[in-house]
Every structure is written in structure tokens, then in C-alpha cells.
């Protein structure tokens, strides 16, 4: 038993024989203050648990829905190599979703319930996945910009205060870094190709730039959960800080690639030591998040159909598990 667990055990069993919520809260606060991890067996405030379930579930939903725009191109990839790369990436995303759903289960959430909330629009997923992939250059730009933004957003989560989430993010971020490099390599290859291929890359960049900036969430002033999540150590940086970091990282990459970013206000600011940039269209962000994006209905309908089509698999797995349990009980008797 670790020192933290021993202390928590003592905190959950005061002399009176019943948990002292104030004492448990003090222990929780001290653990956060020391920048240590909260584990599933530890006491936690209900608000902390609910915030984690909401955030991790949204992340899991995003990984699963995010398979769709790329999966559309599995049968149309221009070569066997590109098909193998894309198939591996889609498989990775399925795995990420499973890791994250498992993390929510350590908080007492039910995976089936979370899926039900997703397909009934009671829980959200990242707005970026409601945009269409119009040509194969979109696959490269998703790898470069979307996965690049995901890396900036998710690497700090490897130090999240909740242990299962932080540990899941370590593997996820390693795999996302491969996705980002694969996307950039695809775009570099196309930019060395024909004029038409170069135009495809520029067109895809123009369409995905602003949605990528919106991935970090609304401006800090309009983000009601950010400050509390940072106080609890769930998040490490604000939305605007992460967005700025992504822009500063991406502009030199765009220059090396030979594409322009669609923002006339993008310019280096010597005084700030960062790039200035224009504000994204937050009205569009809210519209897409509310369910009125180009592909919202399609994405949810396909997820709903896949869930219903897979019911027989879940039923068979449950029946098999019950039969195995029955046999073990009989053998023990």
C-alpha cells in the first residue's frame, strides 16, 4: 500500500467509525496540492467525479466518432501502403476509445449508458468530426492539423490528477504522434507532386484550419469548466493557452510544407513572442456543437446503426460469460 493509499484509508475510517467528509475533503485537497494522483479507491468530491466522467466520455466519444471521416477512405486509398497506414490509424482510434471508456468505468460510469447518451445527443464529442472529408488530401490534413491539435491538448493530460486517465493518455499520445507524422508525410509527398495535388492540399488546409483551432474549446472567458478543472489538476492549461501553443507550432510547419494558412491576421508579434491571429467564428462553433454541422446527423446515425447492428455480439459475449461463470461455480462445488 502506498503512503497516499494508507493516508486515504485512515481518512475513510475516523475514530467515530463513520467517514468524516471534511477530513476526506482535506485529504483530497492536500493530494491535489502536492500534485499527486487520485486513484479509483480514493475518496473524491462528487463534482470532481462528474467532471471527469463528462470530460473522459466526451474524449472517448470523439475517438469513436473520429473513425468515420477517415474510414470513408479505406476503400479509396490510392495505394496499398496508404491503405495500410490509414487502417492502422483507424484501429488505433478504436483502441483509444476503449481505453477511455475503461477509465470512465473506474469512476462508476457504465459504458452502455455513455453510448446511449452519445447516440441520443445527451453527450457531446469534438466538433471537428462533423466536417466532411472531400478528397484524400483531407486525410493528410487531419493527421497534420487535427491530430497535431490533439497532441497539444492531450500531452498535458498525461499529468492529469486522475491516475487512470493520465496513464491512458501516455499511450494515446504516443500513437497520436505517429498519426501526426504520417499525415504530414502524406502532405509533403503530395506537395512534391502535380499542381492538382498541391491545390488539393491547399484546399484541405483552408477548410480544416479554423475547425482545428476550435478543437481547443471556446475562449477562456466563455469556458465555464476550465478554472475548476485546472484547480483540480484535471487540466493544466487554459483553452486559449493551448490554442496559442498550437498556432506557434504549426506556422513553421506550414512554411516548410509550402502551404498558406487562411488567416490574414496571422503575424509574428515580437513583443509577445507569439503569433497574433484572428478569432475563429465562434457562432459556427456553437452551431456545430449544438448539432447543426455539415455531418452531425450522419455521424450519429452511423454510430447508432453500428451500435444496433452489434447488439447480437454483445448478447453472445454476455451469454458466454454467464456460461463460463456457471461452469466455474459448478466445478467449485
TrEMBL record:
GO terms for cellular component: cytosol. One of its GO terms (biological process) is phenylacetate catabolic process. It comes from the Bacteria. It holds the Pfam family PaaA_PaaC. The keyword Oxidoreductase applies. Keywords: Oxidoreductase. This is Ring-1,2-phenylacetyl-CoA epoxidase subunit PaaA. It comes from Haloactinomyces albus.
